[in-house]
């Protein structure tokens, strides 16, 4: 006999409790991938490379299996407990509760308590960027397993094309005796993208039969990946617009808000599936392009019926496209009949349109106006039936938030340089032209040898591992340790007598001197405010410098997200879009490596290199015109004062304002005033 809703809810709750206390064989449960990953990192620091391989490989399997389990269980429970067809609230929520219980039971049979698998955002980001493969490639190399080392290096590089040294390392692997071309496989290749790329190669070679085979495979894999992507959207969600501690919605408001987030995630699967690993923007016209290639390939092998079907399907995405319409009419004339578009594409577009309608309603409940991205725009075409498919014609035209260079409050400024240096001792070494770019400059003698030594002594006293990098001791590379401190922290230590107050003030005054020099040299004619000030040292980790294949700091821009393949820099969060100028004042040069480099937008072509030394300062505008990074520090310690500036007073560094108050108090001899110091630990 069927359980009532009330009976079932009690039964489900008791079942969950019983599962929680029932003994389950540990061998049957999935180990948390973040714990395995941490163990692998620890083994790496201990040079225990066999353990590195053991834990990292196990972490990758666990991560993959957890993802697979979530997809499998969500699809299974969705099929078993559909929400459609409910003609009453009780029936609807009966299905909801049963599906929830089904999910909990299905997932925890494989994973145990789901809370054990809630990894931090930093760890998840490491897996998204394929960081475990960076550890693996070196570990396998140390163990002389060159086939696996080459495979891991190749896999990592596919998502980290900005790593110049990894690219060089791959080239070195190819030169090693016994290393074969077949070793360079992407272990994380996405089937739909892999099949599409192979199809394009065959198409370009004129092998249309093979091209058709792989394009059809790519479509099957694409729609399968779309289902999985949507299933993964059903996890926890969060709206930044809400302060959830004060968020007490009604039942239907809570359902509406959460489902709107899930729906937005599902709607973006179209971008997710078209974006290659490590890239920020999707491949334009990605899904329609399959049908574009297919219609012409089928035509070339004299399968006009299939060519017409694919042409009709393409026109679902690009209604009225002139050249495809001409192709369609040509195929109809040859065939003497009509064909309908493919059903899977019709269903896909229909769902996408319905999602957009619901998102309009859902976001309105949040007080936000929803604007549908121009997914289906078309700006290209073909002159005749023999024309090669149009390629990137705008189907997924990813338009960044565009601004004129160096703007504040939306007002464009003329870019200038060559203003007075303000201080007699400061020497101009190289300008933009000499540094092969724009809005770049290099100064020497900004501070003296004695001041460098004093600031370095302050650094070695007050810097904390991971300060300014969300607590991560090695945020950019496991081969170096990063330590930092803010101006406010220095003044706090000075006030407490833990460092000479004079030295703490020197940090404050030096950063102000640097700000004035940058503001004057670039002739800004407006106030340049501090956005963040950081005294930072990076130290080479002993025993981990052989065969370094990474940079100390990967190539990036300071106010936008660099996309080397697209040669673009997207000015959007999580980039610090409000930063306008940057500067680095070096305190020493007695270390190996650590050169500051400018590159082209491809993140590979080095346009200028700066060797740090005491008193040297490099300054530049913070946008995509100045991609930069730091070469590996292979021995010793490299210290500098890193400064970021903004022209917008709304984004002034709050700690700097507090530091100004501290200095004012000291200058006023008001030492008895309680100092309100609240250092910030992250950049």
From TrEMBL:
Keyword Metal-binding: yes
Domain of life: Eukaryota
UniProt key word Iron: yes
InterPro entries: Leprecan_dom, Oxoglu/Fe-dep_dioxygenase_dom, P3H, Pro_4_hyd_alph, Pro_4_hyd_alph_FE2OG_OXY, TPR-like_helical_dom_sf
PROSITE patterns in UniProt: FE2OG_OXY
Molecular functions per Gene Ontology: iron ion binding; L-ascorbic acid binding; procollagen-proline 3-dioxygenase activity
Requisite cofactors: Fe cation; L-ascorbate
Domain called Fe2OG dioxygenase: residue spans: 533-647
Cellular component annotations (GO), alphabetically ordered: endoplasmic reticulum
Gene3D superfamilies reported in the protein's UniProt record: q2cbj1_9rhob like domain (2.60.120.620), Tetratricopeptide repeat domain (1.25.40.10)
Keywords in alphabetical order: Dioxygenase, Endoplasmic reticulum, Glycoprotein, Iron, Metal-binding, Oxidoreductase, Repeat, Signal, TPR repeat, Vitamin C
EC number: 1.14.11.7
UniProt GO BP: collagen metabolic process
Annotated family: Belongs to the leprecan family.
Name of the featured protein: procollagen-proline 3-dioxygenase
Organism: Lepisosteus oculatus (Spotted gar)
Taxonomic placement: Eukaryota, Metazoa, Chordata, Craniata, Vertebrata
């Amino acid at each position: 006999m069927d359980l009532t809703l009330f009976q079932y809810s009690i039964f489900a709750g008791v079942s969950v409790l019983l599962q929680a206390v029932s003994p389950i064989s540990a061998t049957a449960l999935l180990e948390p991938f973040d714990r395995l990953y941490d163990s692998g990192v620890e083994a790496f620091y201990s040079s225990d490379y066999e353990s590195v391989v053991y834990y990292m490989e196990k972490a990758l399997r666990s991560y993959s299996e957890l993802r697979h389990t979530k997809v499998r269980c969500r699809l299974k429970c969705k099929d078993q407990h559909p929400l459609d067809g409910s003609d009453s609230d009780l029936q609807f929520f009966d299905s909801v509760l049963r599906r929830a219980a089904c999910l909990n039971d299905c997932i925890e049979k494989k994973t145990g308590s789901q809370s054990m698998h809630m990894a931090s955002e930093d760890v998840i980001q490491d897996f998204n960027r394929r960081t475990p493969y960076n550890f693996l490639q070196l570990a396998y190399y140390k163990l002389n397993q060159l086939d696996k080392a080459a495979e891991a290096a190749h896999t990592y590089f596919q998502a980290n094309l900005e790593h110049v040294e990894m690219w060089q390392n791959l080239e070195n692997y190819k030169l090693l005796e016994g290393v074969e071309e077949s070793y360079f496989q992407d272990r994380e290749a996405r089937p739909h993208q892999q099949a599409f790329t192979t199809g394009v190669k065959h198409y370009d070679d004129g092998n249309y039969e093979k091209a058709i085979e792989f394009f059809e495979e790519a479509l099957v894999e694409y729609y399968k990946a779309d289902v999985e992507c949507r299933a993964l959207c059903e996890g926890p969600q969060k709206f930044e617009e809400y302060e959830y501690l004060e968020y007490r919605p009604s039942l239907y408001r809570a359902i509406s808000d959460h489902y709107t987030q899930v729906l937005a995630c599902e709607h973006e699967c179209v971008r997710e599936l078209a974006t290659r690993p490590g890239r920020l923007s999707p491949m334009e016209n990605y899904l329609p392009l399959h049908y574009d290639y297919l219609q012409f390939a089928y035509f070339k092998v004299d399968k006009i019926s299939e060519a017409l079907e694919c042409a009709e399907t393409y026109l679902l995405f690009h209604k009225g496209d002139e050249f495809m319409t001409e192709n369609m009419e040509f195929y109809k004339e040859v065939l003497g009949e009509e064909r309908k578009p493919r059903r899977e594409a019709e269903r896909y577009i229909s769902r996408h349109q319905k999602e957009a309608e619901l998102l309009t309603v859902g976001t309105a409940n949040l007080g936000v106006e929803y604007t549908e991205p121009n997914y289906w725009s078309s700006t290209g075409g073909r002159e005749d039936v023999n024309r090669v498919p149009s390629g990137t014609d705008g189907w997924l035209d990813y338009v960044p938030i565009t601004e004129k260079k160096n703007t504040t409050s939306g007002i464009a400024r003329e870019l200038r340089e060559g203003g007075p240096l303000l201080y007699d001792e400061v020497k101009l070494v190289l300008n933009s032209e000499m540094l092969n770019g724009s809005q770049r400059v290099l100064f020497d003698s900004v501070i003296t040898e004695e001041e460098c030594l004093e600031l370095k002594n302050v650094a070695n006293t007050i810097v904390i591992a991971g300060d300014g990098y969300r607590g991560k001791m090695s945020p950019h590379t496991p081969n170096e340790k990063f330590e930092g401190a803010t101006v406010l922290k220095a003044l706090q230590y000075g006030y407490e007598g833990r460092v000479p107050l004079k030295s703490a003030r020197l940090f404050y005054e030096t950063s102000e001197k640097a700000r004035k020099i940058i503001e004057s040299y670039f002739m800004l004619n407006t106030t340049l405010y501090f956005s963040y000030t950081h005294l930072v040292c990076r130290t080479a980790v002993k025993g981990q410098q052989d065969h370094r294949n990474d940079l100390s700091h990967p190539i990036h821009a300071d106010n936008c997200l660099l996309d080397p393949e697209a040669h673009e820099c997207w000015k959007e969060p999580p980039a610090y879009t409000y930063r306008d100028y940057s500067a680095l004042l070096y305190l020493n040069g007695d270390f190996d490596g650590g050169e500051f480099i400018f590159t082209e937008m491809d993140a590979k072509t080095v346009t200028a290199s700066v060797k740090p030394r005491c008193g040297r300062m490099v300054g530049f505008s913070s946008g995509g015109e100045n991609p930069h990074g730091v070469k590996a520090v292979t021995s010793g310690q490299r210290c500098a004062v890193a400064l970021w500036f903004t022209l917008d007073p709304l984004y002034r560094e709050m700690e700097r304002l507090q530091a100004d108050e501290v200095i004012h108090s000291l200058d006023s001899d008001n030492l008895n005033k309680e100092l309100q110091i609240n250092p910030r630990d992250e950049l």
